[in-house]
């Protein structure tokens, strides 16, 4: 066992895992739906592992039919928004005597400190002993069988016991979950995904608040290679680990960009591109019943993301544009991208459609009126229709999990 300050230590393999959720309890009457969706998402995240049962006596309770590597379970449950804490646990039976026997049998591995305290949570209110009874009685037994001393104020080891309807669990470790709300409980959005560093993180944060996401990517092929499309597909597959399969609209944007370049002042170009993207994205979003767009814009990160320029973009939008990164620094975004695993794909070099026909001096204070005047020379509605018509829809599954070397072939299910 590996000693853990908030549990008795986790073996490399686990048979039972409990997971807690927090915000769901705030949702009153909707709680039933939230819990159903959460369990479905847990089931999806664990697909392919030998799961015997997933239930919800109080917390999410997972039982595997054989031992499964904890790092793998932890990584997979780390994609399930709505879970705010994960406890690998040992099932110690159903009665206090079972618990006592379990602790005596494992005394050597439990003794990982000089002092300890027992903390008990009891959601099974029919259990004959109160939490305090269990703490006191188990404390005595552990003192005897491990030689550790009780220290309630400042213990080296906290032995956590959870009493649920389905039995008594001994907590081996406590690790934070990803937090947020279960994907599928907050509606649907369309993410404008560039393949850069920012928009995948924006998508992640939107998913974290419980939305389901589809994606749209604009590329400038044939003027620029289509490497950005492969990147977008790879990033969507990674993000899909949080939500299951989704759609990506792949949109050729080069001809429309060329028309904007030929007909409009150079300084307005990037904002005009973005306004066109929003027009096209809204058409796709309506068709796919998405209620908002999501972008990776962050205030003042680049010239097109100043308040006046964002306002000029918003002026033509008919649905909300969510910008989860609006107040994050670049370094914070990079840190998040590294943590969620999209950074490595995002930094692969590729020609972006926005670097195609990029203006030399983008302007920071563009008004919506100036954009509208420039667009008088471009048939924006025709372009939006035309570009949307040429969109190709790709259906993408979640990126497969690496197959663990520790998992026995017997444990792998098709
Ligand atoms: P990113 O790292 O997401 O590309 P960025 O900092 O490079 O963002 P911009 O290039 O100004 O910023 O793009 C702002 C936002 O516009 C992006 O985060 C994305 O949501 C959207 N966007 C930009 N280019 C594309 C594209 N080719 N396809 C789809 N959306 C795009
Ligand atoms: Mg970009």
On the 0 to 100 scale, the average pLDDT is 90
Tally of individual helices: 14
| Share of β-strand residues | 15-25%
What is Rg? Answer: 26 Å
CATH class of the largest domain: Alpha Beta
CATH superfamily of the largest domain: HUPs
What gap, in angstroms, lies between the N and C termini?
31 Å
In words, what does this structure look like?
The structure is a single chain. The protein is an alpha/beta fold. The protein folds into 2 domains: 175 residues, VC0802-like (2-Layer Sandwich), CATH 3.30.2130; 209 residues, Rossmann fold (3-Layer(aba) Sandwich), CATH 3.40.50.620. The strands form 3 sheets. Strands 3, 4, 5, 6, 7, 8, 9, 10 and 11 form a 9-stranded mixed β-sheet that branches. Strands 16-15-12-13-14-17 form a 6-stranded mixed β-sheet, with helices on both faces. Helix 6 links the parallel strand 12 and strand 13. The structure holds adenosine-5'-triphosphate and magnesium ion (MG). Magnesium ion binds next to loops.
What's the short story on this structure?
The chain is α/β, with parallel strands linked by helices. The chain has 14 helices and 17 strands. Magnesium ion binds near residues 196, 352 and 354.
